[in-house]
Amino acid sequence: MGATAEQYLRQLDTGRRPDLPETTAGTLRLDVRDDGSTDHWYLTIADQHVQVTRSAEDAELVVRADRAVFDRMVRGELYPGAGLLRNEVTVHGNVQLLMLLRRIFSGPDGARHPRELGRAALAGRTAPAGGAVSAGRAVTTARGGRP
């Protein structure tokens, strides 16, 4: 089982996050409900950095959900937009900032970006013996072979 939202937010690295757009800045407050109480997490995003504090201050976007829903988002089992459409997540404010949560939360253990997988596949691709790769198919170059 992966980390909980609280564990993840407590240990979130405040270093540069190249996966965040350089021009995006804003504040998010996560209201995590559990057993009749609410924990507030305040995220400040600027210059590809995320700063996390515990605060109930007003933010540009307030995201409310049960603890189990935030835990699923942290593990990559639920995207924030899907949670909104399923009414598992409620928001108030600048909804564009909601999509940043998908980049901030790490996703499932061992997850890799699709571009990284594509680059690895291209790096491992070699031409078949006796031929070259052209338009995704092998071309025979042996004597008497047909291209």
UniProtKB/TrEMBL annotation:
Transmembrane residue ranges: none
Residue ranges annotated for the SCP2 domain, each copy included: 8-105
Superkingdom to which the source organism belongs: Bacteria
InterPro entries xref list: SCP2_sterol-bd_dom, SCP2_sterol-bd_dom_sf
Descriptive protein name: SCP2 sterol-binding domain-containing protein
Organism field: Micromonospora parva
The organism's taxonomic lineage, starting at the top: Bacteria, Bacillati, Actinomycetota, Actinomycetes, Micromonosporales
